[in-house]
Amino acid sequence: VQLQASGGGLVQPGDSLKLSCAASGFSLRNYPVGWFRQAPGKGREGVGCISSSDDTSYVTDSVKGRFTFSRDNAKNTVYLQMNSLKPEDTAVYYCATHRATAYGCYPPRYEYWGQGTLVTVSS
Fold first, then answer.
1. What is the mean pLDDT of the chain?
2. How are beta strands 9-11 and 117-121 bridged, if at all?
């Protein structure tokens, strides 16, 4: 079971960026996928999650209206579309999943994590 996050980079405020979370070793369509981020010098925070049952998405208030999630089951990949990026969105972004699907997006813990991809929003 492996997750790989990619797509980070340096962008300007107001730009968009699309992160990918590709899975290998299992079918990601059957599992919720959470996105987290850790800004320099800060703790990790949850960005949001796309459920496995009906692809319902949940996002934290700070990114509501700007960040969305989607799946491409043929590519075994989940995407995080980030629009209207702000400097405070600068962080390493991680995707994660877990097998306790009954908990949906709020399991006791996320078991499998991608390696993280750096997003830097700066003018």
1. 94
2. parallel
Q: CB of 107 within 8 A of CB of 99? A: no
3 touches 95 (CB < 8 A): yes
CB 119 within 8 A of CB 11: yes
Instruction: Give the count of beta carbons closer than 10 Å to the beta carbon of residue 48.
Output: 19
* N-to-C CA span, the chain: 38
- Provide the residue count of the chain: 123
Q: Residue 30 and residue 27: Cα distance in Å, rounded?
A: 6
Contact 81, 67 (CB under 8 A): yes
Burial class (CB in 10 A: 0-12, 13-18, 19+), 47: buried
pLDDT tens-digit profile of 38-88?
Answer: 999 999 999 999 998 777 888 999 999 999 999 999 999 999 999 999 999
pLDDT for position 19: 98
- Calpha distance 46→34 (Å, rounded): 8
